[in-house]
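Why should sequence recovery work at all? Because a backbone constrains its sequence more than one might expect. Tight turns favour small or flexible residues, buried strands favour hydrophobic ones, and helices have their own preferences. The token representation captures these environments compactly. In the example below, the structure is given first.
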């Protein structure tokens, strides 16, 4: 007759439980052993200013804030003048006291003249088309409109050139009609300066045109915002052979 084991008393049925329990117990023992062997210690602080704490080997460094030095007051080489009572410095007199003026000598003041070494600033010439009031001859001084002033100036300059130009002697092979363009400045005092020939091939024509313009009579100067200013003018001078 074969004997049959009881299922509850058969330990083979609990093999997995025993295996897990053994692993857990082994881990627990290993952890306890490692904790006993590894003793934790704090690193020692290398400093002169340290103190021993009550907990163990921890050294806490001492840090102190340096007290700033108070700067010494500056030494004055010269002591200030003591305050003097005005009553001791000046003698107080009544308003009716007569002063002795016999010792007073009259002082002669000579007039002093100061001469400036700086040259007066000369404004740049303004183009005739931009100026507010155009330069013009004395006969047209009363004109106030820019258009009327230009018309008067052009009429007058044409008449002046026709009367003053002397036709130069030019060799026959060079004799021909030519228009010479001249540029000049009418200064703030009405006189002509800076005469320049802009275009012209025949030297005799160029020289005559420059001579006539340089001999222009004094004109009424141009003005800008109520102030006399120099103005730059360009005109043609015609030389015609009939």
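From this structural description, the recovered sequence reads:
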């Amino acid at each position: 007759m074969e004997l049959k084991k009881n299922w509850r008393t058969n330990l083979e049925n609990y093999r997995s439980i025993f295996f897990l329990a053994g692993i857990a117990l082994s881990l627990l023992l290993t952890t306890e052993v490692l904790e006993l062997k590894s003793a934790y210690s704090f690193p020692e602080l290398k400093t002169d200013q340290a103190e021993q704490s009550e907990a163990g080997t921890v050294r806490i460094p001492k840090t102190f804030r340096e007290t700033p030095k108070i700067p010494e007051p500056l030494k004055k080489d010269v002591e200030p003048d003591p305050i003097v009572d005005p009553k001791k410095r000046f003698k107080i007199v009544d308003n009716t006291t007569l002063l002795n003026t016999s010792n007073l000598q009259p002082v002669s003041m000579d007039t002093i003249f100061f001469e400036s070494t700086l040259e007066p600033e000369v404004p740049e010439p303004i183009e005739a088309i931009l100026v507010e009031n155009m330069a013009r001859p004395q006969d047209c001084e009363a004109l106030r409109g820019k258009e009327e002033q230009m018309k008067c100036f052009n009429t007058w300059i044409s008449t002046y050139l026709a009367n003053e130009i002397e036709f130069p002697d030019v060799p026959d092979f060079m004799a021909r009609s030519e228009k010479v363009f001249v540029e000049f400045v009418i200064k703030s005092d009405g006189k002509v300066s800076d005469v320049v020939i802009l275009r012209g091939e025949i030297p005799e024509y160029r020289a005559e045109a420059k001579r006539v313009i340089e001999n222009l009579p004094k004109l009424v100067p141009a003005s800008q915002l109520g102030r006399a200013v120099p103005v730059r003018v360009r005109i043609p001078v015609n030389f015609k052979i009939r």
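A few observations help interpret the result. The beta strands are 50-52, 59-61, 126-127, 178-186, 192-199, 222-224, 227-229, 231-239.
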